[in-house]
Design brief:
about 210 residues; alpha/beta; Rossmann fold; 4 helices; 9 strands; globular; glycosyltransferase; nucleotide-binding
């Protein structure tokens, strides 16, 4: 999605009434998100669908993308001649930044990560921005010696602060905008919005904490 993409007029779609006046425009309509995820699932199954997959969902923003992606993966598996078992686990990341580096990152939740040894792991994330968090997570997971690790991110932001990390599977590459909807939040609001939208200044002010 190019930097000068004007998006879709909000009046073309339905969205929760309590957000009227809080959004600039629709960046990616829900239907397009769903279609793109179906294609990502097909690509993932083609690459790693020959053996069981351990899905690690990064909360909170990744849960909707993860649920839809896993549903599509299961559909492909059901309709193929080889059944692929999928386990899903959920983690949250807490990073402590200092000026110099990412510092320590704490992984909260999830089963004992030593169970990832020898497994094909698919990390599912909502947005990759600078890439630092994901790189720190990958180096953390590498300690447990999984057989393979792939990363699927719904969005990749073009940001000048990016360290060049690219997920193996990306839904959409977007400009460096603050987006909400489809489980992406602003101070816990907008998770109930189906489309991915750009929040306006009024919305930021209204839900500021």
């Amino acid at each position: 999605i190019m930097d000068d993409w004007p998006g879709y007029d909000l009046n073309l779609f339905t969205y929760p009434q309590h957000y009227y006046g809080d959004l600039e425009y629709v960046l990616i309509p829900h239907g397009i998100i769903v279609d793109r995820i179906e294609r990502l699932a097909k690509d993932i199954m083609k690459d790693i669908g020959y053996s069981d997959i351990m899905v690690l969902c990064v909360l909170k923003g990744g849960y909707k993308f993860c649920a839809d992606l896993v549903e599509h993966l299961k559909n492909i598996s059901r309709n193929s001649d080889r059944f692929v078992s999928m386990k899903v686990d959920f983690i949250r990341l807490k990073s402590y930044r200092n000026d110099q580096s990412m510092g320590e990152m704490q992984i909260i939740g999830g089963d004992d990560l030593s169970t990832l040894a020898g497994k094909n792991v698919l990390i599912v994330e909502d947005v990759v921005g600078t890439g630092r968090t994901m790189k720190a997570l990958l180096s953390n997971i590498a300690k447990y010696k999984p057989s393979m690790v792939k990363v699927a991110s719904l969005l990749v932001k073009r940001t000048p602060r990016s360290d060049g990390f690219r997920p193996d599977y990306a839904g959409f590459e977007i400009p460096n905008l603050f987006v909400v909807g489809y489980a992406l939040d602003y101070n816990e609001y907008f998770r109930d919005l189906n489309h991915i939208c750009v929040i306006n200044e009024h919305g930021k002010e209204k839900y500021r904490v």
